[in-house]
Amino acid sequence: xxxxxxxxxxxxxxxxxxxxxxxxxxxxxxxxxxxxxxxxxxxxxxxxxxxxxxxxxxxxxxxxxxxxxxxxxxxxxxxxxxxxxxxxxxxxxxxxxxxxxxxxxxxxxxxxxxxxxxxxxxxxxxxxxxxxxxxxxxxxxxxxxxxxxxxxxxxxxxxxxxx
Amino acid sequence: xxxxxxxxxxxxxxxxxxxxxxxxxxxxxxxxxxxxxxxxxxxxxxxxxxxxxxxxxxxxxxxxxxxxxxxxxxxxxxxxxxxxxxxxxxxxxxxxxxxxxxxxxxxxxxxxxxxxxxxxxxxxxxxxxxxxxxxxxxxxxxxxxxxxxxxxxxxxxxxxxxxxxxxxxxxxxxxxxxxxxxxxxxxxxxxxxxxxxxxxxxxxxxxxxxxxxxxxxxxxxxxxxxxxxxxxxxxxxxxxxxxxxxxxxxxxxxxxxxxxxxxxxxxxxxxxxxxxxxxxxxxxxxxxxxxxxxxxxxxxxxxxxxxxxxxxxxxxxxxxxxxxxxxxxxxxxxxxxxxxxxxxxxxxxxxxxxxxxxxxxxxxxxxxxxxxxxxxxxxxxxxxxxxxxxxxxxxxxxxxxxxxxxxxxxxxxxxxxxxxxxxxxxxxxxxxxxxxxxxxxxxxxxxxxxxxxxxxxxxxxxxxxxxxxxxxxxxxxxxxxxxxxxxxxxxxxxxxxxxxxxxxxxxxxxxxxxxxxxxxxxxxxxxxxxxxxxxxxxxxxxxxxxxxxxxxxxxxxxxxxxxxxx
Lengths: 163, 566
Ligand SMILES: Cc1ncc(C[n+]2csc(CCOP(=O)(O)OP(=O)(O)O)c2C)c(N)n1
Ligand SMILES: [Mg+2]
Known about the structure:
Number of helices of chain A: 4
Distance between the termini of chain B: 74 Å
Bound molecules: thiamine diphosphate, magnesium ion
Shape of chain A: elongated
Mean pLDDT of chain A: 96
Order of helices and strands of chain A: EHEEHEEHEEHEE
Helix content of chain B: 25-40%
Strand content of chain B: 15-25%
Oligomer: heterodimer
Strand order of the largest sheet of chain B: 3-2-4-5-7-6
Radius of gyration of chain A: 18 Å
Number of strands of chain A: 9
Mean pLDDT of chain B: 97
Structural class of chain A: alpha+beta
Largest sheet of chain B: 6 strands, parallel
Largest interface: A-B, 20 and 18 residues
Distance between the termini of chain A: 28 Å
Largest sheet of chain A: 5 strands, antiparallel
Low-confidence stretches of chain A: none
Strand content of chain A: 35-45%
Structural class of chain B: alpha/beta
């Protein structure tokens, strides 16, 4: 099962390595990891996408909670939440492909944020499956480079992760 | 008044009532050593290798209720401590390790004796800190002691750059500490505790399975009262020995890989297990599938939620400090305790298993190691602190020395570190001056920290070294005999030193004991005439002695191999 784990952690040097070290030491998966300070700069918020059985994910949250710097942990995917990922993708855009790329970008509600005579950089936001679908829809030979932020997510409504 | 960072370090230790530090100096801690020189409240024990400083601090902690402290220099000083820190971490021992570091402006420059202390120790500490500003120093040390000793205890490393120890600052030691990210649970959930008490009274085939958490939480007394009230059998893990009096009728012995026949069977066939401060690890339950083949209910008390339902699914989890939870349980049971009458039949069954006498061992013309431990128990009237190394001798010590009190059995259970025995003896003696201390070891293990005989001379630490010398890495040999068709690959230790002369060279007393009839007189002599001497007792034992019962790796708890010749 796919789980999105959100962590509030003291914004201190080495905090990231404590979390990533825990995952590698205990053999847990990290599919993606994003981290940045919150509106309170003493705290960082980390989002980890992991895949594992319920038992494993229970252990992951317990082990994360045990880290002295970790303030709070929730498994977002346990209840209603929204998730997004940002991708930038550089494609070859010449001749008839130029028009086709523009059309695909519109269909997926992306934006072209850089243009040269031969390339576009397309920005696309959505859940991970949408980004995957976009890549699949393009002619693979035209993709020059992709970069994705990894998933971040937030609970719906009253589900709030705060100190 | 402004004082230096080095003086702050010392003042913090004094505030924490630290009376003894184990350490080794070097460039980056010279300011701290200078501050140490100018005071006389804290004693310093100069070891001969930093690994021993950490082991000694660890044993200081295990054998008392205080936090052990080690002090080492940067780079090699720190890397030498890693085995000691990992050992303490695996057994959840509260400890603070203060490390020197190169000056802050040199960090990351591959400076002389620089290493990434925080990075290297991160996976084997409860927490670690790099102090970058002298203003944070006192608070960080306060946090270190707080974190080490609370919740599930563990070692904490504080990395202190040299310039920080030179900078001047006002000193104020915080009285209390609040950390929003660290609030270990103390009290257990009352609803869960009530449920547990209910389940216990319904049990027909109960067992109390108690581990090192009982000792760490100083809850041996509560555990004993609970067991007595219920009249249930009790088994201890290797780490839990002493949590319940071994000479009591209700004690069925240690369980696990080298547990007794009755303990392992009772654990396997119990319908209710009360697990207290224990973690169902692989050395305890053997093959988890085999263990899971019986229907039972498990109540698990542990301060660390991640220990619960980690390897075995638990029915009644109780997160909390063991002592507090047991107090609550006792309160409930005091208002009325009715156990199931069928427990009497269970006791009959247990007595049948006991009748198998699984700790009987074969006789020999040579000294049998089990015999030495039995006699050591008698000669010391069961009152000694016993440290051990790792190997067959460790298991013999655990099986044949009957620990009636907690904190008397000092060994590396989790990491299984050869070499701990002698430095453990030093730590015990610093925490318990004048107490009888024996280190049960093997000729392999003792040589991993043998240089500490020199430290013992300097500080007059009269450890009695019980070297069960089989000329073999015995535990390795036993596995090779049983599982590798007797291909004894590298388990024979040749060219051993003359341990008697070696002890004498260090200024101690050496004895070689080769005949069974000499065992008791030699022990008596060591503990009376040589009470105040370190005595190295080299017992030349039967090299073929094996540890039984044994649950082979991957086997179930009831699939024990029992002693061959009885
Ligand atoms: C540092 C370390 N290295 C290797 C081992 C693996 N090991 C476990 S027991 C053992 C043999 C110990 O020999 P000895 O100290 O003579 O004890 P004996 O088993 O003979 O009683 C070894 C090598 C270990 N536990 N620790
Ligand atoms: Mg040996």
